[in-house]
Each structure stands twice: as structure tokens, then as C-alpha cells.
Specification:
Oligomer: single chain
Largest sheet: 9 strands, mixed
Strand content: 5-15%
Structural class: alpha/beta
CATH topology of the largest domain: Rossmann fold
Number of domains: 2
CATH architecture of the largest domain: 3-Layer(aba) Sandwich
Strand order of the largest sheet: 1-2-3-5-4-6-7-8-9
Length: 431
């Protein structure tokens, strides 16, 4: 009988919390719509909301757009995990979705879709408002709104471009959250930053493996006619079109190959030998670095990223020297604008944003945890972190872009747990 009474009390508390959150959402003028959706069972309730944001936070006369935000409620007094997604946040609508930090911190979870992605588009397209400053202001607005409801500690986090977004948010609004956890995120200083190419040539794997990769790339290029014919058939089947010739598509697939291989931690023992059959060479290229990346149809969903990369976030280049006599292109300079940017858009890279964030990192007392994979090419332009009590950089040995807290070696998991507990003064549970 006592057990039933206890369960009834818990249910009543849960229903009261949900009612309170529903009432809160209803009372906020910035929230234009909200809908309860099926979320992960870890949470009490999950909501998909559309929040009104200025296109230009420095001048609201420029107009507004609706930004999609997912709110998964664990409790009004629990910590809040703010996911600063760098792209679309459609995945957060899946009934099973949960960020790895949420159960570790027993936290609420707020996932913010990045402006100009997914459902978070303005009615009329003007790329001028797609800036890091405006994105940080979006996240500041979300934080300030929900601090009127949630009373616990705040942690912002993101992966790759999302991690970059989390640090940029912290740099512009250092008091919004208590701790930042940024995964595998770069701080680039150019559209073709210049640090990734020597990293790929000298760091991941062993010299023997890196040599085998180059031999594989050259073996593909030596069979150019066969590959171009096959790629044309493949593209026709997939309905892919390109802004470059099929010869150039092959060149860029080959140049992208080692970056993709190391970034995603593919099995290096599956790299075909240089004398492998055409079928083996072809199937492996399609698996690791196929032409879809360069296809107009596939880039449509992430074109906003390339605009940001060209404007202020930066990107990576390709070293063509080892393959020079086998390529159809003279070099790969300015390939981002040639292949990926909207054709009518002329953007010059502005280094001031990256410099601002770099200077912030030198002086900040904010508590920030960085997590990287040792062999991930993005770690070549990873954040430089001073030896200070408020900063910690974890590098997983042999890790890729898929490096997360849950797949770190045990010793590094303990480091993360201890540091988060020290910073947040909360219990942290890491399996």
C-alpha cells in the first residue's frame, strides 16, 4: 500500500511538472507554436517548439524567422543541457533520441536547430544574416527564455560544427552557461586553413599505412577512363548532377579520400592494394569517398554550412602534389566556391571571428571541456588549450570524428567525470 502511495506521489509530481512547462510555453510571446511529441523515456515529456528570432539581433527592423527548438523535460530543478546544433536538428524528433550527456548529468535537454537549416529558415533568403554573432545571439535568447523556468546548472554542448557553435556562443555570452562540452570541433583561420594537409600526410596511423593510402589513390587515378565511365553510370542511376566535369569529380573524390577515411575511423585493413581489381578499387571509393558529397542534390541540405565556411568558419584544403601528374585539375585552390557555394554569391573570408574566439580562449576563466580523436583530421585545427584548471582537452588515442565520452578509454572517462563534478558540483554518472 505504501509503495502504491509513493508511486502515485511520483506520478502527481511528474504531471504537475508537465502542466507547469506547458503553461510556461503557452505564456511566452516568443514561442509561436509548441507540440508535444514522443521522446525518449528518460524524460517526462518532449516538446517541439517554434521560437521567434530576429534575423539580425542588432537590428530587429530587418525582420524575424522561426527557429525550431526541442525541449525534453526532466525536472524544473535539474541541470539543463543546451545542444547548439550546427546543422538541422531533425534527429531530435526521433522517439529514441538522447544526448549522451543527459543521463550522465540527469539533465533536461534543449536542442536548438541552427538558423538557415532544417525548418529554421527565413521566409526570404538573405545570406547576410547567417553569421556566428547572430547564431550566438539565437542561443542566448533561448537560454534567457528558459532560465525563467529551469533553475538548475546549464551546460552547452555540440559536436563538430555544433561544438564550434557552442564555444562561439560561450565566447560572445560567457555567463549564459556554467560549463561547455565541445566535441571534435575546429577553430579554422582560412577557407583552406592549411593545417589539415600536413596532418594527414604525417600523423594518423603508421608510415606504412599512409603510404598504402597514397598508392590506392594513385591506382584509382591510373584507371581514370574506367572510373569516369562507371561514375557517370552511378550518377545517372542516383540522379546526381555536378557543377564540375566527371573527370574533376573523380579528382576530388580521390583527394577527399584520406580525409574521409581518417575522419570517420574506417577500417584501414580494408584499403585495397594498388594491384587490386577495378571492382575492389571502385567499391571502396564509393564506400569511403563517393561522388554524392560533390553532387548538387546532396549539398542542397547543407549549402548554408558552405556559406558559413566561406564567410568565417573556415574549412580545409587538398594537397595535390603527390598526385599531380595523374589529376585532370592543375590544383584544388578555391574548390569550395567552385563546387559548393551558390553561384550568385560572392563572399570574402573574414578572419576576425576566429581571432575573437582565439583571444577569448587565451583569457577566459570559463570552464570548457574539449574532446578530440587523435587521428581525426579536424583535430589538426582543434582549439589550443592552455594548462588551466578551467580548461581540459581530452584526445582519444587513435580516435576519429566519432569520439565521444562513452567511447573514451576508462582513464579518460574518469578525468572527464572528475572535472565535470568539480565544475558543476553535481554527481556525474559515466558508464
Amino acid at each position: 500500500m505504501k509503495k502504491l502511495h509513493f508511486l502515485f506521489i511520483l506520478l502527481l509530481i511528474s504531471l504537475t511538472s508537465v502542466a507547469q512547462l506547458s503553461d510556461f510555453l503557452k505564456s511566452q510571446a516568443q514561442i509561436k507554436s509548441f507540440e508535444k511529441i514522443t521522446g525518449n523515456d528518460f524524460f517526462n515529456e518532449t516538446w517541439e517548439i517554434m521560437m521567434r528570432q530576429p534575423l539580425d539581433h542588432s537590428d530587429t527592423s530587418k525582420g524575424f524567422f522561426l527557429q525550431r527548438v526541442f525541449v525534453a523535460d526532466k525536472g524544473k530543478n535539474n541541470a539543463v543541457l543546451l545542444i547548439t546544433e550546427g546543422y538541422t536538428a531533425t534527429y531530435a524528433s526521433r522517439p529514441t533520441y538522447i544526448n549522451e550527456l543527459s543521463p550522465m548529468l540527469n539533465s533536461n535537454q534543449i536542442c536548438v536547430e541552427h538558423r538557415y537549416f532544417g525548418k529554421s529558415w527565413p521566409d526570404s533568403l538573405n545570406w547576410d544574416y547567417l553569421t556566428a554573432v547572430n547564431a550566438a545571439a539565437d542561443h542566448h535568447a533561448v537560454t534567457q527564455l528558459f532560465k525563467n523556468y529551469y533553475s538548475g546548472k546549464w551546460i552547452n554542448t555540440g559536436i563538430s560544427k555544433g561544438g564550434q557553435t557552442a564555444v562561439y556562443h560561450r565566447a560572445y555570452y560567457p555567463d549564459d552557461v556554467d560549463v561547455t562540452v565541445a566535441y571534435v570541433c575546429p577553430l579554422n583561420f582560412g577557407v583552406e586553413d592549411g593545417r589539415h594537409e600536413p596532418f594527414i600526410e604525417n600523423v594518423p596511423g603508421t608510415p606504412e599505412i599512409r603510404k598504402r593510402i597514397v598508392e590506392y589513390q594513385i591506382a584509382v587515378l591510373k584507371k581514370r577512363d574506367e572510373f569516369v565511365t562507371k561514375l557517370k553510370e552511378y550518377s545517372k542511376e542516383k540522379k546526381y548532377t555536378y557543377r564540375i566535369s566527371m573527370d574533376e569529380v573523380l579528382d576530388y573524390c580521390v583527394l577527399e579520400y584520406p580525409f574521409a577515411l581518417w575522419q570517420w575511423g574506417k577500417k584501414i585493413d580494408e584499403i585495397p592494394a594498388k594491384d587490386a581489381s577495378f571492382e575492389e578499387l571502385y567499391n571502396h571509393l564509393i564506400e569511403i569517398s563517393g561522388p554524392s558529397y560533390f553532387a548538387i542534390e546532396d549539398m542542397e541540405s547543407i549549402r548554408s554550412f558552405f556559406v558559413q565556411a566561406a564567410r568565417e568558419l573556415g574549412y580545409y584544403g587538398y594537397d595535390t602534389k603527390p598526385y599531380k601528374k595523374y589529376l585532370s585539375i592543375k590544383n584544388a585552390k578555391n574548390y569550395l566556391s567552385k563546387i559548393f557555394l551558390p553561384e550568385d554569391l560572392n563572399i570574402r573570408y573574414d578572419k576576425s571571428t576566429a581571432k575573437y574566439v582565439k583571444n577569448y580562449m587565451k583569457d577566459t576563466d570559463n570552464e570548457i571541456l574539449f574532446i578530440y580523436g587523435e587521428w581525426d583530421p579536424w583535430s589538426a585545427s582543434g582549439f589550443e588549450v592552455s594548462e588551466k584548471d578551467n580548461l581540459l582537452k581530452i584526445i582519444k588515442p587513435g580516435g576519429s570524428h566519432r569520439t565521444r565520452i562513452n567511447n573514451l578509454p576508462e582513464g579518460q572517462k574518469v578525468q572527464v567525470k572528475n572535472k565535470l563534478e568539480e565544475w558543476l558540483d553535481l554527481p556525474v554518472s559515466i558508464n
